[in-house]
Amino acid sequence: MLRRPEGTVPQCDTGRIWPPCQEGSLGSQPKATHFSSRGTPMRLSRYFMPVLRETPAEAQIVSHRYMLRAGMIKQAAAGIYSWLPLGYRVLRNIERIVHEEQQRAGHIPMLMPTLQSADLWKESGRYDAYGPEMLRIKDRQDRDMLYGPTNEEMITDIFRSHVGSYKDLPMTLYHIQWKFRDEMRPRFGVMRGREFLMKDGYNFDLTKEDALHAYNRHLVSYLRSYERMGLQAIPMRADSGPIGGDDTHEFLVLADTGESEVFYDSDITELKFGDRTIDYDSVEQCQAVLEEFTSRYARTDETHDAALFNEVPEARRRVARGIEVGQIFYFGTKYSAAMGATVVDETGAKVPVHMGSHGIGVSRLLGAIIEASHDDKGIIWPEGVTPFHCGIVNLRQGDTEADAACQSLYDALTALGLEPLYDDRDERAGAKFATMDLIGLPWRITVGPRGLKNGVVELTSRRTGDSEELPPAAAIAKIAAIYGAIAA
RNA sequence: CGGGGCGUAGCGCAGCCUGGUAGCGCGACGGUUUUGGGUACCGUAGGUCGUAGGUUCGAAUCCUAUCGCCCCGACCA
Question: Residue A61: inside a domain, yes or no?
Answer without folding.
Answer: no
